[in-house]
Amino acid sequence: MEKRVLFRSAWLPWLLIAPQMAVILVFFFWPASQAMLQSVQAEDAFGTSTTFVGLDNFRTLFEDPAYIDSFKITAIFSVLVAVSGITLSMVLAVFADRILRGALVYKTFLIIPYAVAPAIAGVLWIFMFSPSIGVVTYWLRQTGFDWNHLLNSGQALTLIVVAAVWKQISYNFLFFLAGLQSIPKALIEAAAIDGAGPLRRFFSIQFPLLSPTTFFLLVMNVVYAFFDTFAIVHATTEGGPGRDTAILVYKVWHDGFRALDLGGSAAQSVVLMVIVVALTVIQFRYVEKKVQY
Question: Would you state the torsion angle of the CA atoms of residues 107, 113, 115, 116, taken in this order, to the nearest 10 degrees?
Answer without folding.
Answer: 160
